[in-house]
Amino acid sequence: MSRTFALIGNPNCGKTTLFNQITGSNQHVGNFPGVTVEKKEGTVKNHKDMTVVDLPGIYSLSPYSAEEVVTRDFLINEKPDCIINILDATNIERNLYLTLQLMELKVPMILALNLMDEVRASGNSIDVQKLQNELGIPAVPISASKNEGIAELIERTVQTAEDNIHPQRMDFCKGAVHKAIHSIAHIIEDRAEKNGISARFAATKLVEGDSLMIDSLSLSENERDILDHIVTEMEETLHTDREAALADMRYDYIDTVCKKTVFRHQETKEHQRSVKIDTVLTHKYLGLPIFLGIMMLIFWLSFGLIGSGLSDLLAYAIDGLTDLADRALTAYGMNEWVHALIIEGIFSGVGSVLSFLPLIVVMFFFLSILEDSGYMARVAFVMDRLLRKFGLSGRSFVPMLIGFGCSVPAIMATRTLASEKDRKMTVLLIPFMSCSAKIPIYALFTDVFFDEHKTLVMLSLYLIGIIMAILVGVLFKNTLFKGEPVPFVMELPSYRMPSLKSVMIHMWEKAWGFIVKAFTVILAATVILWVLQSLDFRLNIVTDSADSILATIGAFIAPVFAPVGFGNWQAVTALITGFTAKEAVVSSLAVLMGSEISALGPVLSQIFSPAAAFSFLVFTLLYTPCVAAITAVKRELGGMKAAVSVILFQTFVAWCTAFAVYNIGTLILHL
Q1: Which of 60-74, 92-106, 172-186, 252-266 shows the lowest mean pLDDT across its residues?
Q2: Looking at residues 100-124, what average pLDDT do you find?
Q3: Cα 615 to Cα 608: distance, rounded to the nearest angstrom
């Protein structure tokens, strides 16, 4: 019999780490809120008939954000066989607030008390047996990162589901709140059961004024009046509003439980250490310069000291493989046209992109360390003051930060933003963040034109993207999205030593995604490109690629780019192919120049001046994102009109910025 388990917890409680331990899934773990945006599934190790669903991290079941709606809808509509509620044992009081709401669903449930190793190391303790008795829920102490207690958790979860053991303790309210909940539960009991919802859970949501629950129960006007009267009486008795009354009721009960079960002598060592570190890293004036310094160091290591050497080695290996294939095809007597397609098209195009794989792997190795350590959450905190001036809260920085990896998951991550204004505005700004797909372009041009200043050029490109996003944010704040940003509330996790497994998983994800793209989208684009530059409009093979279909199309568009420094058909054509995938810009240049990777430099120097090269880099940084990102924009903003607007607007911004860069570089700096 197949079973489904729902994995639920607060953001940053170790939920995704536990999911990976239970399922063996290669899923990235991040030490900042917002990593899990949609529910993800995995099969329990050694239990092929059992599925675990990793739901978004939430603080409550009130539908204030998209992730809370996703989680709540799954619990109500999909009806999992058991809920695994993971708690951060170092901050159990806050985590139990969600637990009390989950108990009201009357679904079999088990608690996973995570980070118990940190609790013990600080001399603190939790009486797990007494906690089980107080809540009426099975509880298992674990350390997800160290794989401690996972086997017992799986065993007890399976047993809880098979025995259909529901939470034993339900009535933890008292006084006026107790009276209101039970009065409403009595009124809507039949209707709730008909909808497959616990009457207790439905009544609590109605006391909160939950519009989704009111609509789902199809309450009549008379019933709504009765409910309003009950809630008003409760508020008048307690001299507070409905939501505060429920929150006070829950925290009073949590305080009672924790006094009996949690024995805390001091703050955890991790928390004490984090407070000391934060006095420097989140300093009012030093926080941002420190972040920029760290990023500059990462760029230097990725594109210089470590990554550059590895990239050169891979490029030599690919060149050697290309020469070997060339000789083999010649010896075989392969048709000349097919021979040229394989060597000049596929090997030059795909090989030129693959040679930059080490740069991406090294860069994301260091970024994963920053993320898993908990530092990136601090960056969002530091950025809040700056972003607030431009109409956004610091919480928007999390999806924007993800955008440095890939725009698609970053755009999806905006669902974690509570404000619709913030969400839409962040979606429109994310494409200005320089995604990892552009790294091969940067690496190629900095190698050729700015070899002595690679780190500075790389950092300047990322800063230009951020600055343009800020300027566009100011524009949007005063036009499309008027109003103040929502208050910024984000949990700052304790600094922790990054898990080598997590870092390696992240690196492998990036590397594998890059390889897959190289042998699918980029391979297809390269073949089409080579064919179009080998034929004219009469489908005759040309001796000079300047007479080809591609050159004709490129030459027609090229004058538009003459004012920004690269009005040649090769550069324009490469930019067009970049719409499929940004890495395709490099493969396209390799195919169009008919050159091996190691020989691309001298050829590029013939058609680009240094000023034009930097202008080209700025344009590729800012112009329309790839097809996948545009599809994500269309999905999140609700239509093709929005997607087309993003394409046109970003391309316009890119052209204007590149124009300014090229002319300043030419006239003032004499590049």
Answers
A1: 60-74
A2: 89
A3: 10
Q: How far apart are CA 342 and CA 348, in angstroms?
A: 8
Specify the pTM.
0.68
CA 447 remoteness from chain centre: 30
Is the Cβ–Cβ distance between 650 and 625 less than 8 Å? yes
Q: Among 666, 572, 658, which residue's Cα sits nearest to residue 615?
A: 658
Q: What is the β-pairing status of strands 82-88 and 47-54?
A: unpaired
Where residue 108 falls (left for φ over 0; alpha for ψ -120 to 50; beta otherwise) is beta
Instruction: Give the sheet arrangement for strand 82-88, strand by strand.
Output: 40-44, 47-54, 3-9, 82-88, 109-114, 139-141
Torsion sign (Cα): 57, 58, 61, 63: negative
d(CA 505, CA 150): 20
What is the chain's percent helix, strand, coil content, to nearest 5?
A: 70, 5, 25
Contact 421, 577 (CB under 8 A): no
Q: Is residue 628 exposed (0-12), middle (13-18) or buried (19+ Cβ within 10 Å)? A: middle
Beta bridge partners of 112: 86, 140
In this predicted structure, what is the pLDDT of residue 269?
73
What length is written for the chain? Answer: 671
pLDDT, tens digit, 9 for 90 and up, residues 248-267: 888 888 999 999 998 877 66
Res 329: pLDDT: 84
Please check whether residue 406 is in contact with residue 433, taking contact to mean a CB–CB distance below 8 angstroms: no
What single DSSP character describes residue 3? E
How far CA 350 is from CA of 149, 356, 489, 594, 625, in Å, comes to 46, 11, 45, 13, 20
Asked if residues 306 and 361 have their Cβ atoms less than 8 Å apart, the reply is no
Phi/psi of residue 479, each to 5°?
-130, -80
Strands 125-126 and 262-263: antiparallel
C-alpha closest to that of 10 among 490, 499, 496, 403: 490
Torsion over CA: 77, 79, 85, 86 (sign): negative
Residue 408, token pair as written in the block: 């698609």
Please, is 34 exposed, middle or buried when counting C-beta atoms within 10 Å of its C-beta (0-12, 13-18, 19+)? Answer: buried
Q: Looking at this protein, which amino acid is placed at residue 441?
A: I
28 Cβ contact list (under 8 Å, min separation 6): 16, 35, 502, 505, 506, 509
Q: Of 120 and 546, which is predicted with more confidence? A: 120
In 3D, which of 6, 99, 103 has the Cα closest to residue 55? Answer: 6
Tens digits of residue pLDDT in 573-595: 888 878 877 877 887 787 777 66
Where does the pLDDT of residue 347 fall: very low under 50, low under 70, confident under 90, or very high at 90 and above?
Answer: confident
What distances in angstroms separate CA 582 from CA 356, 466, 637, one per listed residue?
13, 19, 23
Whether 113 has a pLDDT exceeding 70, the answer reads yes
